[in-house]
Amino acid sequence: MSTSDPVRIDRRLAIKWMLAASAGAMLARGRAVGAAGPGEPQQGYGSDPNLTKGYKAGDYWPLTFTDEQRREAAVLADIVLPQEGQFPSASALGVVDFLDEWVSAPYPDNVRDRKIVLDGMAWLQDESVRRFARPFSGAAEADRMTLCDEMSRGSQGQSDAGAAHAFFKLFRNLVATGYYTTPVGMKDLGYVGNMPLAKFDGPPAELVAKLGLTDEVKW
Q: Which residue segment(s) compose the domain that 183 sits in?
C-alpha cells in the first residue's frame, strides 16, 4: 500500500482523522430520543440512556439508509478501510450501522452531515450509472477507484467537484470514527488504555530521581 494513495489509507493514519473529526463528539453525548423527528434539530439532549440495557441501531430514532444506500455505503467504507490481516473490513465490523445511525440522529451537527452524506451518495450513484452503466455497489473495482480518486482529489473539473470532495472527506472521517471506537479497532491501533491492572508500581525510581521529584505524598 503506497502512502501516497489518496484512497487506500494506512489504518494508523486514519486515527488522526478520527481525532480531528467532530463525529467523535457523538460518544460523549447522552444519546436518547427527544421530541424532534428525523432530520429536525434536537432541542436539548433528552434524558440519559438506561446503561443497563442493550441498544441496537434504530432504537434511538428511525434510520435513514435504504437497502441500496447501505450496499453503497458498505462498498465505499471497505475502500477506505479494507480488511488487513486479522483485522476485518469496515463493513464487517458494523461501520455501516454507525453511519446510518449518525446521519439519522436529530441533533444539529448530524442533520448537517446527513445532507452532505446523502447528497454525496446520490452523486456517486448517478455518476457510476452515467459513466459505467452500473450502480456504484455493482461497478467494477477499477471504476469504483476512479470515482474515489476523483472525490479524494477534488479535481474532476466539474461544478460539483467541491461538494463531492467534502462528502468523501466527511465519509472517511466517519468511517474511521466508527471503526476505531470499537474494541477491534482499538486493538488494531495497539491502544491499551482503560485496562485494569493487578498493581501499579508508579514511575521508575530512576526517572523520579533524574527529574528531582519525590514520590512522597504531602498533605
A: 11-210
